[in-house]
Amino acid sequence: MNKVTTTYNMPNGYSGTRTLLRSYAYLKNPIGFVCNNMKVYGDTYTARLPGHKMILTQDAGFVNYVLKDNHTNYGKSAFTAGRLSEFLGKGMLF
Questions:
Q1: What is the pLDDT along the chain (94 residues), one digit of tens a residue?
Q2: Which of 1, 5, 53, 77 lies in the 20 to 30 Å Cα band around 87?
Q3: pTM over 0.90
């Protein structure tokens, strides 16, 4: 069986400064905040934090690519695998 591969580039999004400026709106209504951004940027977009770039998506193909087809290319930080998993559990993401 041939494996089909797809290459993804980093999607459009906004800068770290804009992320910080919009953090209050996120804390106030996280679901509405993400839904609004998806209307602006599409089903997949990036948000930058100091030293990090997050990808937020609702694209099932992209999720499958990251979590199943290409999972070995994505590492987990000590913070994510350790401290954060204590609070959020040791599920698929942590």
A1: 556 566 656 677 777 677 777 778 888 888 888 898 889 888 988 887 777 778 888 999 988 888 888 878 877 777 666 776 677 666 655 5
A2: 53
A3: no
